[in-house]
Amino acid sequence: MPISTKLFNEQAVARFNSLTADIQNTQGRIATGKNILRASDDPVAAANISFTREQKVMLERFNTNIDRARIRLNVTENVVADTTNVLTRAYELALQARNDTLSVGDRRAIAKEVTQLKNTVMSLANSRDASGNYLFSGFKLNQTPFQADENGTIQYKGDSGAHSVQVSEDLRLRTGVDGATIFLRVPTQTGGKDVFAILEYLESNLKSGIADDMSIEDLDASIQHFSIQQARVGAELNKADLQQAALEKRILLMDENLSNLEDADLAALVTELQSKIVSRDAAQQAFVKIGQQSLFDYIR
User: Fold this and answer.
1) CA-CA distance, 265 to 197, in Å (whole number)?
2) Domain hosting residue 176, numbered range
3) Can you give the pLDDT at residue 1?
4) Residue among 170, 165, 174, 171 nearest 65 (CA)
5) pTM over cut 0.85
C-alpha cells in the first residue's frame, strides 16, 4: 500500500520524539544515578522501593526513641547510684552512732549530717531529665513528686505511671522507675517503709542521743533495695544497646536493598545512551535523504 508524504512525515516525527524521550530518560538516569525516575518506569520496583523506604523511616524512628530513652535511663541510673551512696553514708553514720563511747552531744552532731543526707535524698528524688521533666513523678511530668507537708512528712504527689517507648514492631523499652516503688516501698523486716521515714527515724533518735539497731537494719535494706533498682535500670540500658545494634543491622540491609533497587548501572546506561543517539542520528539522516526525493526520482 502506498504511503503518503504526510503520513510518512508524521510517523517519522513520532519516531524521533520517541527516540528523544528515551534519550532524555536515559540521560536523567545517568545524571541522578537512579534506575527509576518515575513509578511508571517499573511499577513493581517502585512499589518495593516505597515499602522499603517506609520501613527504613520506621526503623530510624525506633532508633531515635532508643537514643532518647538511653539519655533518660542514664540520668535515672546516676540518680539511683547517688542515692545509694548517700544511704551508704547514712548507714556508716548509724554504725558509728552505736559506739558506746560517743556522748549525746556526739550523736547530735552526727544527726546534723544525717539531716543533710535526708535533704540530699529529697533533692535526688525530685530530679529532672534533660527535657526538664521529673524523673520519678510517673505520668505527671511537671508535678514535683516528693513534697513535705505542714508536719514535715514527705508526701508523694506523682502517680504510678511507667514511661516506655516503642523500639521495635513488638518491643517497648522502659525509660525510668516508678517513684513510689523506689522511694516509698523499701522492703524491711517490719514491712514496707519509705526511705525518708527511715532517715527521719535515724535523725530523730540521734537528736535525742539514741542509737539503735533498727536504723542500721532499715538502712541496709534500703541500700539493697536501691541497688536492685539500679540493676533494673542497667538491664533496660543493656536492652537498649542490644536493640539498637539489631536496628542498625536492619537499616544497613535496607540501605543495601534500596541501592539494589534504585542505583543505576552507569556503564550500561552510557552504552545504552550512545546506542540510542546513534539510532536517532541514523534515523534523522535517513529521513532527510528520503525527504529530498521526489516523484521524478522514481520514474527516471
Assistant:
1) 72
2) 60-256
3) 44
4) 165
5) no
In terms of phi and psi (left: phi > 0; alpha: psi -120 to 50; beta: otherwise), the region of 211 is: beta
Number of Cβ within a 10 Å radius of residue 218 = 25
Written as one letter, the residue type at 204 is S
Going 284 to 285 to 286 to 288, the CA torsion angle's sign is positive
Lowest mean pLDDT among 10-24, 96-110, 237-251: 10-24
Task: Specify the CATH number for the domain of residue 218.
Answer: 1.20.1330.10
Question: Which residue has cell 547530735?
Answer: 108
Residue 212 carries which DSSP code?
Answer: -
Q: Report the 10 Å Cβ neighbour count for 85.
A: 15
3-state secondary structure 255-275: HHHHHHHHECCHHHHHHHHHH
Number of domains observed in the structure of the chain: 1
C-alpha cell of residue 114:
544525717
pLDDT tens digits, residue range 127-186?
A: 999 899 999 999 999 999 999 888 888 899 999 888 899 999 999 999 988 899 999 999
- Residue labelled with grid coordinates 535517513: 286
| Percent of the chain residues topping a pLDDT of 90 | 57
Helix residue ranges per DSSP H, the chain: 5-32, 43-97, 104-125, 179-184, 195-207, 213-262, 266-291, 295-299
Q: Look at residue 194 and tell me if it is in a domain.
A: yes
Please state, in angstroms and rounded to a whole number, the distance separating the CA atoms of residues 47 and 296: 57
Q: How confident is the model at residue 75 (pLDDT cuts 50, 70, 90)?
A: very high
Q: Is residue 41 part of a domain?
A: no
Distances (CA, A) of 116 to 37, 86, 89: 69, 10, 11
Residue 131 inside a domain? The answer is: yes
Query: Could you tell me which residues come within 8 angstroms of residue 46 by beta carbon, excluding any fewer than 6 positions away?
Result: 36, 38, 39
- Whether residue 136 lies inside any domain: the answer is yes
* Mean pLDDT across 266-283: 60
